[in-house]
Specification:
heterodimer; A: mainly alpha; B: mainly alpha; 69% helix
């Protein structure tokens, strides 16, 4: 009876065994990376808005406080998107004829909101409250990154559950003095943060063991 | 077995040589398709399409199409899961434990029983996934580095179940495949079509039957047998933990693991008999699966059936002995409650009828034995129905009592998995040798090598 397979089939057979193990490993690891990439999470993707609003210009160069526009961040679950009137406080006087700002003026005239595109969109099954985070000393920049350095705004972090839990499991690595919450540049060396963090968690009465209860976020 | 009281007959019919054994078994695969096979496969395939339809509706509309409710949150899904996984136990018992105990009679039925195990586990494995509600997220059951930063709950028996069943499926599949390799080489060499030679050739993985091959093969097979042996006991123990760890009266009992394992072997052998009896007749394999095999299987059923009966008895005894009012209500509810007919049917089919197996005349009467095996198949299904539904429907609080009945989709899915099981089985019979050819050859008198003394 003649040979069914050529001699090279032996090498091929060995390669498939290696390939199955190695290939599956690479595929799994690749899937893991993809799932955490900006392609899936939307992180680090600058979003085109109806008006090219620059946080860098307003918050950094002009030094406007976050709360001038995001008025409810300390008292409500939502930080608040400012009404067109807030824009017009200044822009009725400066850049009042700029064609770039025409959508803002149009919105003011017609009483129709500017259709801003939401940058940080949490899933509906997650309960999130800005006020409690601000009240317990979590700075804006901890979650939103250096918004004061962004021309067009992007989402700094993945907003995946493991990212939330990273802080909920180790709040002492992130809490800061309440006076520094709106300071975008605040950063302590690691050692100092750890020492201060443990003390602040105590002081703020943060019950660390409850922070990872399911119902803290999924209500 | 030393000195049987009665002559049970040989484990292989007289007059066979190496060649006739190989011819006879390989012919089932290599000859033309028979009409009876086509008919059987066709019917099975129709049943399989029922399964596909039920699952399609399930995926679109959700598990609300089933009869489950609160308080009976587990229904046909888990009943069928446990039923199928129980049936799967005979395969490993026959292939691993009987191998280690050097029970050579297992040779005739191990290949077939292992295949049956695999297919039963496949059917069983579908149910927990289908009952998830969002079955496409089934991989959440596995511990993998997910973006949620969460592990599954390792303290939950449902989690242990995932490991138990997937390990069992993997090891059974490996064991089955390794055992097939020498026979795949036989088929490769005997196949007349080029496609057949190539496919069997790839699967045979270059087997040439050299002494070194056999040496490695025997070692690997023995190691796998050792690996599968604890699984015979562990898998159904873990399945029983799904219940025993819960606090529902009727579930929360320490007797569950041994009682479930015995029930699984009982159900497994009943299913092996249910399938081998028609098969050996249709393919004329009475010389290989002899009356002695059938007799032995009937004895195993009798022994494990008695353990199961003891389990039923102990449940009733403990309800009284514990003095726990909820436990005793549970037994009273089983015996006289709204599902009492099912409990009575369970006792008749699973305890009373199998007592016929005490008689040699019944064990050697093929139609009667087939009927007993069928009765056990039904009985074991009823057992799971009683354990799951009857325990859940009336628990501690009368205000939360309810009733349960399967819907057409429940029955459809169940019949459908039977279709899946039979479809796979028919394909197996047609494409692979259902009896281990090379192991059968070792049973022949010719294979007994006599050592020369100097």
């Amino acid at each position: 009876m003649s040979q069914i397979f050529h001699r090279s089939a032996n090498a091929l057979a060995r390669a498939t065994i290696f390939g199955a193990v190695f290939g599956l490993g690479v595929l799994g690891y690749g899937g893991m990376l993809l799932n955490r990439s900006g392609y899936v999470t939307g992180a680090h993707v600058a979003i085109e808005q109806p008006v090219p609003f620059s946080h860098k210009h307003h918050a950094n160069e002009l030094g406007i406080d976050c709360r001038y526009c995001h008025t409810t961040v300390e008292v409500s679950s939502a930080a608040g998107i400012p009404p067109t009137k807030t824009c017009m406080n200044c822009h009725s006087q400066i850049w009042a004829d700029s064609p770039t700002l025409e959508p803002v003026r149009a919105s003011f005239r017609t009483d129709q909101s500017i259709p801003w595109i939401k940058v940080h969109d949490l899933p509906d099954f997650v309960y999130f409250d800005h006020s409690i985070h601000v009240a317990k000393g979590i700075g804006c920049a901890s979650c939103h990154g250096r918004v004061d350095q962004m021309n067009l705004t992007w989402q700094e972090n993945s907003l995946q559950m493991e990212w939330c839990l990273n802080c909920h499991r180790h709040p002492e690595a992130f809490v800061r003095p309440k006076a520094e919450v709106f300071n975008m540049a605040y950063k302590l060396p690691r050692r100092a943060q750890e020492a201060l963090g443990v003390r602040l968690v105590e002081e703020y009465d943060v019950h660390k063991e409850q922070l990872t209860n399911c119902s803290i976020c999924h209500r | 077995m030393s000195a049987p009281a009665r002559d049970l007959g040989p484990i292989i019919g007289p007059g066979h040589t190496f060649e006739t054994v190989t011819d006879k078994i390989a012919a089932v695969v290599l000859s033309e398709t028979r009409k009876g096979w086509m008919l059987g496969f066709g019917i099975s395939f129709v049943l399989l399409t029922i399964f596909l339809q039920c699952v399609a509706v399930l995926f679109v509309r959700g598990i609300g199409i089933w009869g489950i409710n609160i308080p009976v949150g587990w229904g046909f899904d888990i009943i069928n899961f446990v039923w199928w996984i129980g049936i799967g136990h005979a395969g490993t018992l026959i292939s691993a434990i009987l191998l280690l105990f050097r029970q050579t009679w297992r040779t005739s039925i191990n290949r077939f029983a292992e295949a049956m195990t695999l297919f039963a586990v496949a059917c069983a494995g579908l149910y927990p996934i289908l009952h998830l509600g969002r079955p496409w997220l089934f991989y959440w059951l596995l511990p993998y580095p997910n973006a949620m930063g969460m592990w599954p709950n390792f303290r939950s028996p449902l989690m242990w179940d995932v490991f138990a069943v997937s390990t069992y499926a993997t090891v059974s599949a490996l064991f089955w495949f390794v055992g097939l390799i020498p026979d795949l080489a036989t088929l490769r060499d005997r196949s007349t079509s080029r496609v057949g030679r190539i496919i069997y050739g790839i699967l045979a993985m270059g087997w040439r039957g050299s002494a070194r091959h056999w040496n490695r093969y025997e070692t690997a097979y023995l190691l796998l047998a050792g690996l599968s042996t604890p699984l015979v006991v562990s898998v159904h123990s873990v399945v029983s933990f799904d219940f025993a760890v819960g606090i529902i009266p009727g579930w929360h009992a320490t007797i569950f693991p041994p009682y479930f394992v015995a029930g699984a072997i009982y159900a497994g052998f009943a299913m092996v008999l249910t399938l081998t009896i028609p098969l050996r007749r249709y393919y004329g394999l009475e010389d290989f699966i002899t009356m002695r095999h059938i007799n032995y299987m009937a004895r195993v059923m009798l022994a494990t059936g008695l353990v199961v009966a003891y389990g039923y008895l102990m449940e009733i005894f403990m309800a009284w002995y514990s003095g726990n009012p909820f436990e005793s209500f549970m037994v009273k509810n089983r015996l006289t409650g709204p599902y009492s007919t099912l409990y009575a049917a369970l006792i008749v089919t699973n305890v009373v009828i199998p007592q016929l197996l005490w008689f040699q005349r019944v064990r050697t009467n093929i139609p009667l034995l087939f009927a007993v095996a069928m009765s056990i198949n039904v009985g074991m299904w009823l057992e799971r129905y009683v354990i799951i539904v009857v325990s859940l429907h009336r628990d501690f609080l009368p205000s939360s009592w309810g009733m349960y009945a399967g819907t057409i989709y429940d029955y459809g899915t169940f019949i459908g998995t039977i279709g899946l099981f039979l479809t796979l089985l028919f394909l197996f019979i047609r494409l692979l040798p259902m009896i281990s050819i090379f192991e059968m050859r070792t049973l022949l008198p010719e294979a007994k090598v006599k050592e020369k003394h100097a």
